[in-house]
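User: I would dearly like some help making sense of a protein record. This is the protein in question:
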Amino acid sequence: MKLLKISLLLTFSLAIAVCQSQTIQKEQQSILAGLTGKTGINNHKPLHDRYSIENRNIARDFLGNQIKGLGLKLKEHSYKIDILRKGVTKNYEGKNIYTIIPSTTESNEYVIIGAHFDSVKDCPGANDNATGCALVYGVAKQIAALKTRTKNVMVVYFDQEEHGLVGSQAFTEFIKEKKMNVHSVHTVDQMGWDMDNDRNIEIEIPTPYLKTVYQKQAKKLGIKALVTPEAGSDHRAFRTEGFNAVGITEEYRNKDTTPHYHRVTDTYETVNFEYLSFSTNLVFNVIEELITK
């Protein structure tokens, strides 16, 4: 009888987990649809890109409402920043948004997870990087539901990555000014392509500790977390300033990546939502390990 009860409990728990995963996947599909112009956002015309100030504002507000829909408090980080590029100083102005999911026990430590929400001009930006935004949302929803969190989690959507990691660089300066105790930073960029269906991911320039955690969780799910030296996304801004940071992506360096990169064909229809959902659960498992010790 006792074994039967345990079996029923495990079956019930599995059913709940499957149901939750299916719900998150539907919500991720809705996020992708809005960000890529497959559907309109409120009374706005469908977005054809997230490049102009107007379109970035629409996308940012849309993502902010998703965060508020989880019962979390949305915060804005407006910035004006001068960046030296090729001997010329350029001024950039934009706005990141973020929320803090507080620890359930006293802690001043933060784990940061984020993704950029902008795209290049005339590109729907489904894979790059609406998928990253949707993954971060799915992880945030599951983190907020945890009964125990020993660290605070900061969830961020970065502006102007396509202008040269501008939003993440500004945010790095912001958290340095606040003297935040940052455990690690995890940035997600392009998580919707898996042509060979092996479900592998790449982890970009991880610290030895983060490499161990990602590969352990990947192994549990029967896949690989492949280490690459790719430095072309938001994690670089944090690493440059001394933070423990890692980038998470599809097999960009291992040649199983979207052929629609920065093209008008980077549309909703090209996204592998099963892979996105699977990767969401993997990243959540990593973050859960980091914040429940």
Notes: Residues 10-16 have pLDDT under 50 and may be disordered. Residues 82 and 88 are 10 Å apart (CA to CA). DSSP finds seven helices and eight strands in the chain.
